[in-house]
Each structure stands twice: as C-alpha cells, then as structure tokens.
Input
Amino acid sequence: MFTMARKPQPQAGGGIVAPPVVVSGGQEWRAVGRTAVSILAALLVWALLAAVLGDPSHAPGPQQVLPELARGLLSGKMLPDLGATMLRVVSSFVLAMLAGTVLGIVLGLSRRVNDWFDPWLTIWNNIPALVLIVLCYLWIGLNETAAITAVALNKVPLVAVILREGVRARDPALSEMARVFGMGFVARHRHILIPQLMPHLIAAARAGLALIWKVVLVVEFLGRSNGIGFRIHLNFQMFDIAGVLAWAAAFVIVMLAVEWLILAPLSVRANRWRRE
Amino acid sequence: MIALDLQEKRFGSTVVLGALNLRVAGGEVLGIEGPSGSGKSTLLRILAGVDTRFRGEMQAPSRRAMVFQEPNLMPWRRVLDNIILPTGADEGTAEAWLARVGLAGYGAHWPGQLSLGQARRVGLARAFAARPDLLILDEPFVSLDAGRVEELLDLTAELIAETKPAVVLASHAPQELDRLATRRARLTGRPARLSEG
Output
C-alpha cells in the first residue's frame, strides 16, 4: 500500500489511485505511541538507577525531581525565569538565522568571496562559546544586548555553513529554465531558490535551536540575574541537585514543544512534494 | 524570426564556436546535428538568451521557450503550477495545454509522480503555453522508447504547425530531424562552424 501512495498509477479512466490517508494517519499515531513509550522507558531507567544508588540528595530520581518540577510550573514560580530564557532564545535565534542565512547565501553564490572568507568562518566556528560570551560581556557590558549578541554570534557560522552547502547543491538547470522563460526576480527566488534551501533552513533551525538554548544557559549562569541559567547557578551554590534537574527539565519540555508544534509540522509541509 | 551573427564564443582561451550566421523565420524548423561536444548546447544557450557572453550580434524575440534534455520541472510545485509559474499563463490555458499533450487531470500531481514520458509532455506543454516566437528544442525526446518518441514527434509537429514559432532543434536522432526539420545544418570542426544542407 505504501508504494502505491508514493507513486499513483494512472488508471484507464484517467483518474489515479488515491493515497491511503487512513494508513498514513495510523502510522503517525503509532510513531507518537513509540515516542511516548520510549520516554516512559527512559524515566523508568532513571528511577531504577536512583533506587540502586539510594542517595536522593546526590542522585535524585524522577520521584524527587518531577514533583518539584510540577510545583514550580503549577504555582507559576518558574514562569518568569522560563519567559526570560525563552525571550533570549527567540531573539538570538532570529538574529542568528537572518545573519547566517544571508552570509551563507553570499558565500554559496560566489566562489571568490568564499575563498576569501572561508578561513574566517572556520576560525569563527571553532572559537569556544565561552570565549565569545566573556568577550561580549567585557566589551558591551553585563547587559541584555551583550547576552543576546553573544548567543547569536555563536550560532551564525553554523547557519552560514549549512546554508552555503544548500546554495551550492542547488540545481543550475532549474535556474537556467527560469531565465529562458523570463521568470522575474521575486518568482525565481520564491519558486526556485527558497524551495531548494528549505531542507537546509530547517536543518539549520533545528541544529541552531539546540545549540542556542544551551549557550543561553551559560550566558545566564555567568552574567544575568534571571532565567533558567541563573536559577541553576543558585541551585548549584546550594548543592540542590534535584533543583538543577527540575529547572533543566522545565526547559527541555519547552524545547520539545517547539520541535513538535513548530519545526516538525514545518518540515512535513516543506517536504510534502517528496511524500505524496 | 531569429538572427544570430556570431563572431566567436570562447571559454577561457578555448574557442568553442567560430564565426557563424543563423536565421530562422516563424514556422521554420532548423535542425542542427553534430557529434557530442560539438558545441550544440553552447549554441542553444546563446539562442535561448542564457549565455550572453559572446562576440557577435543577435536579434531574438523576447518570448522564448525551451524544451530541455531533462524535463527540468520544479519538483516542489504541482504540475499545473509548473506551467503557470514560468509562463504566466492563466489556469484555464495551462489546463488546456495539459489536455493537449494528453495529461488532462494531472494538474494536481507532483512531478515526482509522473513517468519520464509524462514529465517530457509537461515540458512540451510548458513550452507552448509560453506562446513563444522562438522555440528551442534540445534533444527533447532522449531516453524514451521508440513508440513514445513517435507519438511525441507527431504531437510536436502538430503544435508547431499550429502556433508557427521559429524553431531550432538540436538532435542526434535522424528520426527526429527527418520528422520535424524544414532545414538542416551540421555543426562540426574546432572551433565549430555551421554548414547548411
């Protein structure tokens, strides 16, 4: 059935075999089920390990961390810090995606520009996140601008590299087709270039989001007075391991929601033409 | 009508095409033959307006269309949009052209769902939907089985007779040249020159 859905065959009447929508829907639900079971299994392994070690203050199990997480979320105590972190993630994400995409497209289009700037990009990509953070705080000051700049700077080269590969991998025959038929500037970009870059944009967004929220926490740990990173810093000083894990878990949940509610549907939409 | 007075086309220090003159009037089909690597594709890209870096002069109509060696469809746009977006044809016209090439009802398909023969038909529909004054056919029917080629040749001949563009056809296949070309020329030598007859 599955191959039939991918390649509908014309029938005598001129119609085609309809894709079996029910089957693919069922497959989606099965995938969701597998994810749920997999997460439950991870929790179980964690609980078993904690039980074996038998030292809740050093190795808290889910039975210590999850109630703390629930209390923090339900009482609303965690929300201001979650919000502050989220705002930093979103601002630096948008900045880095815009700058990285433009840079990547320019480098991908021009061999000569790339020859000049490729070594810069390699060096930039290999500067440790911590160095960029400390330098931004020293140069700009212990403020929000420095925090967001530092995070964005960490991500730009990654996005640029991925987008550069995307631009290089584009099909020149299609650009030629567009020129023969006299397609305009906007149409050429909207229908020819961007669709070819879409998989790379989504890959850059995924990789970038994972990187960004980790760096945001370090930035907050070092020089902010709110956000998850700041709270983890406090818990670290009080040696509250369950607290550290609860704060981390809260943000992991937020990022999983972003992946499932925004990135995954976007990716499905962009790849529709491959699947039907 | 297209008129090309080429003095020279070079890539770096290699002269690929020598001096040549080429004129094709509306309704005429100039068949160009020549071995692989003889410069046919280079000449077609100049005529199509894709390659403008040559010495010489060209007067070509602004409405051009081309059928390529590969179908060159946008795989992420549905078949109907593959005709509408490059040509600016309205939906009804695009559907009519699809029907004309025997693909009525295929507008909502993705190109990846078509066979090679069907994709080539879409390429043909797209070219004619542009209502070109100059139509360039670059080995338009390679890698199809003989029966299919015969069918598409009939269709192409019919459409050319109806719409009367100036046509330049490059091909290896005697069958295609015999069926479509009203004049023939050979591209040979290094740098390549065009000899009619």
Notes: The first helix of chain B runs from residue 40 to 47. The longest strand of chain B covers residues 2-11. The beta strands of chain B are 2-11, 14-17, 20-24, 29-33, 55-59, 64-67, 134-138, 166-170, 183-188, 193-196. Chain B has a mean pLDDT of 88.
